[in-house]
Structure formats: structure tokens, C-alpha cells
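Researcher: Structure for this, please.
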Amino acid sequence: MADASVAVAAAPQSIPALLARNVARLGGLPAYREKEFGIWQSWTWAEAQREIRELALGFLSLGIERGDFVAVIGRNRPAHYWAMIAAQMCGAIPVPLYQDAVADEMAYVLENCGARFVVCGDQEQVDKVVEVEDRIHHIEHVMYTDKRGMRKYDHGRMNALEDVKAEGRAGHYRYEAELDARIAELTYDSICVMLYTSGTTGKPKGVVLSNRNIIETAKNSSNFDHLRSGDEVLAYLPMAWVGDFIFSIGQAMWAGFTVNCPESPATMLTDLREIGPTYFFAPPRVFEGQLTSVMIRMEDAGRVKKWLFDHYMAVARRVGPNILDGKPVGLGDRLAYLLGNILVYGPLKNTLGFSRIRVGYTAGEAIGPEIFDFYRSLGINLKQLYGQTEASVFITQQPDGQVRSDTVGVPSPGVEVKIAENGEVFYRSPGTFVEYFKNPESTASTKDPEGWVATGDAGFFEEGTGHLRIIDRAKDVGKMADGRLFAPKYVENKLKFYPNILEAVVFGANRDRCTAFINIDLTAVGNWAERNNIAYASYQELAGHPKVYEMIQSHVEEVNKSVAADPMLAGCQVHRFLILHKELDADDGEMTRTRKVRRNVVETKFADLIAALYDGSGSVYTETEVTYEDGRKGKITATLRLADALVAPEQRMAAQ
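Model: Predicted structure, C-alpha cell format:
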């Protein structure tokens, strides 16, 4: 046994092997925390291993076989991470699903992977599985974490996860040898997890990732940012997303840091402040939402407090990033920044839960440079990374001292990146996925025989710095009718910097000018309306108010001035816009579960609105199908106003 332990510690080949290594090295340190009923509960590495083994033994008692797929549906909870690791111990493959997916979306994944076992978080998730079982006949057993509301269900093929663990404890003499044998069989090339793409352009694809993919990526990225066992993370992003898997399982297992699970999405910000993570990841929408909240509060603040905020944020924007990067800053500016930290930045970071952040990342979508610079000016070491599910996340990262808002950094350790003649970015690395499940055609079209993967993104390396700049999705980057470059995401990110704008979709490929759809942020605009004595009864009514249009028009025109300053993209200024009568919604198919706009769906669904933007109409009547929270379908009607925006003079290149 001693020799076996040394071998595992020396070269862990799987997540269960890393768990054993952490127990040997860090057994008494906290591995997982969960807040439930307002109280934080904690498990050490040794305690977590015991829970996971009991669950794995329980899975064996249910008849789980090597190669089986185990679906996991629910919010971030230690029990759900343990279920995925327990499945791996049994030689099975975990498949986390988005907990907010509707039953039909869930049915597609369950059918595609052929899951025999499903672990559900609560009654809501169980109900979705029960709803689709008449179509999917290979599900043999459903387990659930939360027992509330489950008493009257048919438990012939259904059990509480705690009861499965109890069965494992009771039968451990029968199953211990088999479990140890299966763990010993795991190698670097064994499948670690299958994660489904967000399905931006079509049906989601199952991305098969091996232990090699996850462990090598976790090792390289952890070493890059010097992650260690004393770090703390908050696990709140969808478990079905590759980012959560690499941070909350891959890097957590490699570095041995503590994974903290909030009580619910509603309490996430409160729990974030209580934990004060040292390592934090969030997609741009989270940072955008927090910035919106800050700006709303400052609009309601007293005159003195508002003046202090505006004055010291001006100081922060001027010198904060340079101080963070260790660059020379004058004594007067340093003193002003220090005073600002006492009066403004420190209390603000504490309110946001960012006081202890040593490393922060954003990815998934491009973040607006103004938003990015705001957080860095506060002294938060926020960086950008560029990645994909197929890369086990990491393609490029920003080294400390080389952080900028307009690049995504240099290739991550172990990653090779090249730019094709058409500008598309390609990479290969130890994290490169094995295959798309049951989809050899897509695998072959995405990954060539030499291991190079087509990202679908257009970009280029800067001369001198070697940093990668991503322009947009390659399929979205096009030309205007006059041949100038069209990059919608560049403009959309600038629009979304304004707290009043939640989402923007820009059109213009092969056309003579750009136009845009705008979604207002109901919280921010509603707060503004309240301060300005504007009454409204619904999102639709507020979105159509003339004063809201005036406000959004001013934002669009400010963005046009900014876009005009870039000679390469100056043709992307927005000439006309409308404010949509509904929020773009994943339930209506207009966005993915990771909040990426499905452009093809939007263009098809709202073709009448796009046509009106280009034919000079002053208004347009439209009917739109929507999905209500209970799953019912309905229609909403609206007559939308179309508004013009001033276009700024373009700045010509010096050579011209």
C-alpha cells in the first residue's frame, strides 16, 4: 500500500488519484465549503474523500458499469462535484447539464449521451427528467440531493443521494476491492468528463475530455498564476460550463485550494463577500452587472459621497493600473491613490467581495475595455484569458505586468497558436479535446490530423508584444458594402459598458451602414425612471418611453465617437437603432445558456425589425412568441419606434 501511495503521489493519472494525493498532503485542510440555511459547512480533504468513496460504492451497488454516462443536474454543491468524481472512480463518465435548461434541452443531452444514471439537485430537476422519460428509455436510476417535496414520488427507480451513500457504506466489504480495481485502471487517456457546447450555431456537441486534457491544463495554468492550497474560490457558475469544471475540479484538485459553494444564486453576492475569494473567475456579464449596481447606488448617493467617488475614480483611472503593474508613478499620485483607497476603493472592493483577490479572470465573451479598466483601476488584478471547451479552457493568458484590455495575452504554457491566412485562430495543446461524441464529421472539420483546432475566431498577433488580439467570431466578421471591416462584437461591447444597456446586437454585414437592437437593463433604467418621476408598468412600456430613447440615443452616439477613432473599424458606427420590446432569452432560443446571442436565430426571428431599420421606417408593428416561466407559450405585440443616431467623422490613418 505504501508503494502504491508513493506512485500515486508522484504521477497522478486521474482526478481520483489527485484526490488521494491531496489527502496524503493536505488531509486536514478545508477542501469544500457549502452554505446551507445560512450556515457555512466545511469538509477537509480527508472527509471529502470519505464522502466520495461512499458515493462511488453506492453507485456500484446500483450497477454502474465502466463507460456509463452519469448526468449531473443542479446548482453548485459539494455533493454534485463529489458525484462526478465518484462516477470517475467507477470508470463512468460524468456529464454535467445546465440546471436552468428546459426539459427539451435536457432531453437532447440525455438522449445523445445515453445516460443510465441521473443525479438531480432538487425536485425541479427531477420533474424535468420525469417529464422526458417517456421519450428516453435508457435512464435506469434517478438520484436527488434535496429531499424536500420528494416524499410522494415513485421510488422504484429513484433514491436520495444520501441513501445511495448509506447503501455504499453498508456494502463496502462487497465493493471495496472492485472500486479500488477500477480506480487503478484509470490512466491519462481515460475519459474524465463530457461537456456540451453552448450550441450558439446549432445543436450542442458533446466534447470528450481526457484526464490528460484536464490535469495537464490544470497543472500549467495553476503554475502560471502560482495557485496554491491556501487559495479560495467561489463555485457559482454553471457546472455544465467548462470554466467551472477546470476551476472547481481540475485546478482545485491540482493546487489543493478550497472550493466554496454559495447557498443559492440569490445569495451569491452576499456569500462572495463572506468568503472573500483570492482566485475569482466571472464572465463579463457578472462584472457588467456589478458595475451597474455600483453606478445605480452612486446615483442615489448624497452630494459629498458622489463627489468623492467621482474625484477618486478619476485618480484611479489615471494611475491605478500602473500602480497595479508596478510601473513608475509620481509621489503625489501615489498619495492621492492611497487616500482614495481608504475612502473609496477599499470600501467598494469590500462591498463587492473583491478585497482579497490575488488573481481574477474574465472570459467567455469579450469584455468592454471601459469595464475591464474600471476594475483594474481599483487595484483588482483582473486579467483576460481566451479559451474554449475544446481546449479545456486555456488557449491564451495575460502574464502579470502585461495586462491590457485590448488583447487576450500570450499562449498559455504548453499551447501553440497560429493564425491562418484568412485570419482564423488555430491552436494545439495537451488540453485539446479527444473528439466530439458520436460526431466524427465535426471532429474532423474542427481538429486536423496534426492536432490543430480551428477556433472559429478571427484575430492577429501584435508585433513586438506577441499578444493575441481577437477581433470577433470569424463567421461574424465581414465586410460592409463598401468593403470596410464589419466586427459587431467590438461595437456591442462598447454599448454594453453603459449600465442602462443590458444587451446589444449590431447588424451591417454586406450593407451600407450598421444598425442595432438594444435591450435595456430593467434594474438600471427602472432606477433612473424612478429618480426622474417616470411611471411605467412593464419592461415593454419602459423600453418604449421617449425619454428612454433619448438616453439610449446619447449612449449610441458616444459609442459612435469612440468607434470613429479606430480607422480600421470606423465603418461600424450605428446609424439607426431600436429598443426591443422584450429581453433576449435563452428559453426563447435567442441566447445560449451561457448568455451568448444566437445571431442566426435573432436575425430570423426579428427579420421584420431588421428590414424596418434599413428601409427608413419610423415605426414597425411586430408579434413575437415568448416562453413564460412555467413553460407555456404566448405572444406579445408591440409597435416599436426606430431612431436615428448621429455618426461621428472618421479619423483617417496618418499615412492617408
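Researcher: Any notable elements?
Model: Residues 303-324 form the longest helix (22 residues). The domain at 478-644 is CATH 3.30.300.30 (GMP Synthetase; Chain A, domain 3).
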